[in-house]
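Give me the 3D structure for Phospholipid/glycerol acyltransferase domain-containing protein.
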Amino acid sequence: MSFKNMVSGCTMVGMLQLSCTIGTIVLITPTLPLIFLSPKLGRRVIDFLIKLWFLLAVALYELLMGVKIVITGKPSRRGASCLILANHRTRLDWFFLMSYICRYSAIDQYRISLKESLKKVPGAGWAMQCAGFLFLKRKWEEDKDHISDCINYFSKVKSQPQFLLFPEGTDMCPNAIRRSNTFAEKQGLPNYEYVLHPRTTGFVHFVTEMKKAQILDSVLDVTVGYPKTLIQSEVQTLKGKFPEEIHFYVEDHPIDTLPDSEKELELWLTKLWSAKEARLNRFYTVGHFETDTSDYDISAIPKPISEVEFKKTLYGIILFWVIFLITVSVALYISRMFQIYCLLSGLTYVLIYIRHGGIDRVLYSSVKQNH
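Predicted structure for Phospholipid/glycerol acyltransferase domain-containing protein (371 residues):
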């Protein structure tokens, strides 16, 4: 580990946390009244502001840290609403997946399901609440209704969400691997080396509820592979350790190709994960994902945005955030009123969490009051 890499890693993580916190306080807080006055408009405004941070994250790890992204397979069409299913190799898969979403889809529609405790993180937790991320307690009786409320909200505000769901439930840590193997032995299933056995209950509920709300065009299967350096947690990024390459194999499954019954959906997911295990086995043998183009109409596969234009956007977004953070720093130094505003803004999120359980809960309830 070089000193240069450590400085770069600390710079990136520091800028992400600072931009997330300050951006939420200064940019998003003034838009919160729109949640009640006009939920649809409020959703679009907040999505645009969240998008600015997503693009910054991609810019920093691709440009500053030099992460190379390789995408193969059959992406979903742009503008479609989908349920994204991905293997959960590391704690940062959701973070790196933004590179695919930025190129082939709408990053402002990216929604992540994650554990409830992350909601409490100052700055980042506030932003994720505003983005409408789905915080789960991993208690099915409570999570089931919460998922339904979330899906209903995005349907009512006419959004086209790209929900990311990790059917494995957790990343491939040693404890999770042991639990997966124990489950496999009890069910008479093979032990997997590259994935965990998926949990089908949440997947079936997502598909059922999204279809009912008419916001599901397809299910996007994403297989993530790290052919060189693998980082397992956020702590390693502080040390400047990032994967040199990240490969995504994507395959879009239009909703009319999926079965209807719950049992058949469970079997469909189980078979999908078995195929994913085989695909990753081959990937780590040859070093890349292989695509059988005979299965696809090449002309029908969506094209990504131009890499030249994309890189221009990333450099532009870095410039925006640098100017923004400098401006806010100066304002904090010279203006007592601005200092008070920022303090009250931060307290607003704390109080809303204490009283309502978070901005996300307020978002979901807002459409119930307006309809």
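The chain has a mean pLDDT of 91. Let me know if you want a second pass.
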